[in-house]
Design a protein that fits this description.
single chain; 157 residues; alpha+beta; 5-stranded antiparallel beta barrel; 1 helix; 6 strands
Length: 157
């Protein structure tokens, strides 16, 4: 049963990665960096949800603060302390980046492993009019004891 669940989660993550790859095939330009601090939490095997605070940094613009929630559905077991995630933000060449542009919902995949100190990766697409990609395979650093392979959803407001 566990192997079946893990296989299903891996297949879902692979499919999300392929969607992210297809989105990258469009002309995308880097428009800034999203730096997020995720609250500590406990993975409950099939679903977890953690609050976060993010700063959107763009050269020549004021830093924007976003509140948000990251939710994972799949294998997510363990406890993590505060986590830091850094994403490069890309938009389509025809997307206007104005104030609060990153607000909205994002979908993709997530994988992480932590024993004491660990790393993870996340790739998400969405935002206003699905016009933004948060750098596929972003890097995060965290402490705790955790294993996660899951579909991920992020809401920024």
């Amino acid at each position: 049963m566990i192997r079946t669940i893990i296989a299903a989660v891996l297949a879902a993550i692979l499919a999300s990665g392929l969607m992210a790859g297809a989105a990258r095939a469009e002309t995308r330009i880097e428009v800034g960096r999203l730096s997020c601090t995720v609250d500590p939490g406990i993975g409950l095997v099939f679903v977890s949800s953690k609050d976060m605070t993010c700063r959107f940094l763009r050269q020549g613009h004021r830093t924007e603060i976003y509140e948000g929630t990251i939710t994972k559905v799949g294998l997510d077991i363990g406890i993590t302390e505060r986590t830091q995630i850094e994403w490069l933000v890309f938009s389509g060449s025809d997307v206007r980046v104005g104030p609060r542009s990153l607000a909205g919902s994002y979908v993709g995949g997530s994988g992480e492993a932590t024993i004491g100190v660990g790393l993870g990766s996340n790739w998400l697409i969405g935002g206003s009019r699905r016009g933004f990609a948060l750098q596929p395979f972003s890097i995060q650093a965290q402490t705790g004891l955790n294993l996660s392979l899951a579909l991920a959803g992020l809401t920024l407001y």
